[in-house]
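Take a look at the protein record below and flag anything odd:
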Amino acid sequence: MNLTKNLRSNMYVQLARRNLTRHSMRTVLAAIGIIIGVIAISSMGILGNSLKLSVSSSLGDVGNELIVYPAYGENTVTEKQLDQLKKVGDVESVIPVMISSGKVEYKSESTYGNVYGIEKDDALLLVEVDEGKMFRAGSSDCVVGASLARHFEVKVGGKITVKDSQFRVVGILEEAGFGFGISPDQGVFMSPQVYEKIYDDKEDGYNNVIMKVKTVDDIEIVKTAIEDRLNKKEEVVQVLATNSILDSIDEIFNSISLFLMGIGSISLLVAGVSILNVMLMSTMERTKEIGIMKAVGASRKDVLKMFMMEALFLGIAASLVGGILSLGGGFVVNILILKESSYFFAPSNFLYIIAGVLFGVVTSLAGGMYPAWKAANMRPLDALRYE
């Protein structure tokens, strides 16, 4: 309350308000430049952050997983190696997976997908059934990914063909997005016993083993333990820590957000030049006024403060309006680019609005510095003689 009262009674505040309203159209045009710049920066930042959230969401909760692959020159992870992996500590589950890529057929249509041989209980640790149920061990049942079911328009109870063998679809999985050990959306899941019958020409063993670690903090410890246990004499397996990939993805999308904000900041720089131009014109128009102020005792500091107050008020008002409008801009960008709005409401997105507002205020102050310095350094006699 006292702050508002002091501002209203402050001479510099009154002069700044009067000078901004003196040429209202010019002030509005300068403010529009700041508003557009703030909207551009905030919206671009929100877009980059929403893209990151979208990709992170599609990868699922895989931060505590290790994927064990055969090393270069090896074909599979063997049963003996699997037994050794099961002896590693701090691991919640060890899930061996057999994978083949091939043609999947439904009625007269066909497409390519991944076929997974995996135990029923292990599958339930990696995927969730949206419709129907999980296949029974040893049966000729299967479950299919959401994208594959959508492509074929297959329902629970339908029959698909894999390698000339028919399988009854007993379940359709929830959409999961891209994964590291498996990509379930375009996959067909069946029991290992049935998988080995239809792919009897394949070498014994597993294409990869997914290991769920108890906590993310244990990832590196478990990874080192695996390599010490299996790769002691020679490298027979490779171990991929999914949390390191997620960290890399975060860094990439943070860079994308900064790049997009950099593009948006160009419009704010243009707005800064506009403010510079407006205030230089104002300085020229008020040369005699500045001379009179100095003649009656106003110091350089007083004149500098008055002009900087103008730039500050213009920057704050325009940036706040831009910040409010960028809520709508960010929402529209999410709808147009990502086709959904859920990521817009993430708390981290509002940091980009704050950053846009602050950048707008700083740009406005930077645009007003030279005109303020020029006005403050006018000689009173020269200013009074100016025509």
